[in-house]
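User
Please review the sequence:
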Amino acid sequence: MSFNFQQRLNIIAQHSNALVGFGRGVEREALRVQPDGKLSEGGHPYAFGSALTHSSITTDYAESLLEFITPVAKDVNQLFDYLNDIHHYAAKNLENDETLWPISMPCYVQGEDKIELAQYGTSNTGKMKTAYRQGLKNRYGSMMQIISGVHYNFSLPASFWETWSEIHQSKLTGSDAQSAGYLGLVRNYFRYGWVIPYLFGASPALCKSFLQGKETNLNFKKVGNGTIYLPYATSLRLSDLGYTNSSQSSLNICYNSVDNYIGSVRKALNKKAPEFADLGIKESGNYIQLNDNILQIENELYASIRPKRVQQANETPSQALNARGIEYIEIRSLDVNPFCKLGITQEQVNFLDLFLTWCAIKPSAEISALQSKYFAANLNAIVTEGRNPALQLEIDGKNKSVAQWGEWLTDELKELAVVLDDCGKEERYKEAIAHIAPRFSAPELTSSARILEQIIEQNSDNGPLALNLSKQYKQELIDQPYQIWSDQYFETQKVESLKKQQEIEESDDVNFDTFLESYFIHSEKA
């Protein structure tokens, strides 16, 4: 007979160190925009060094789409010190009076040709990164690729996994317990992770230029000169308009074991896509895409959460998992928070810690392909109409409203918060859930409702609102001093990254075609 929730909490409470020392990291994306709010047409600023090799500042899809990456931090204050310092340096060194776009949906873009793909130099590795992005452009268009988000990387302390085995009555130990535990967390995130866009989604509206003539069956309303919105939407970034990939719906990625996961990913990597085959691979000697499979490489697999392991040299993500198991998980369903200069708040991180720990300690049955479709439908309903009081979600055969699911979840999170705060001798988790929980029954308190209210009340566009915030936040970031690092630290990072890129370029000893062929042969090996 399995333990109930209270019994699990009691066991955790007896191991006071089991939940002390979470590993946390943030990856924040932000478009560089011109003073008039249009997309930057300048290249990656020289002060930021090499986008290929810099440890803290790189680019995502486009030259104008920055990505800031923190080191792993065991302390929340330290995490935000890292994030603050990267933003502070970036704000001071933006060129041509540019600012950082503070919302997820892109600024006004005249056309896809105005979006320059990220450039990583002349090495084979750099060329592959750009060619991969060329494939994304030809497959899905560039507009959806310049949507910004925040990724949250999270790991539970090593001391937790022995306790995990006890509360789940599992015979697994060591890395086997850790990998099984993280996959249990992942499965529960697919069940209940809709709460993240519901609570923190902040993209209920977008500039109509984003559609670029694209047809949609969503019943948009208009406000201002060129903004469209859905009254109950939370995160259009996560809708079919945004960052999802509908061609992947047939892949059936399985999260029931590490072997299942790796096997289904590798099967997906070799699955042909007729619509992509029609594009071809090369044109006039230039790559249109890396290949004509549904996934060019593993990074193209869209998921709101990913099991991860730090990769070694020449290792693919699945090879790393196969060799050493799961090390941490990456949450990918966070919109950029428009109400703060860093794109994410400490309160959000505290809630994520609490929620993800809850996902790890709750029972987590295996998920069938049919259940995966139900959970995907729940998420899609939340992102397009999550604040609709009539919305019902079905989870494991139970139908409830968002408010009802939220009340049940809140009750358990509050109990867990007490245990976590006792373990860490603090109050952060109780405070976070107390402040955030009312949003389940009062959707007007959610981030999406607050941002939409401002737009509608002012009968304005989200563009001017975001541009004003970007200028305000830039000044705040410049005024905020370094907490850990310094100008000298980032100057050293710049120089070292440029040197490292040059070394990589000089070490190439085969042409790009041979390099790619070798890469894909190697990636198929266990």
Q: What stands out?
A: The longest helix spans residues 402-424.
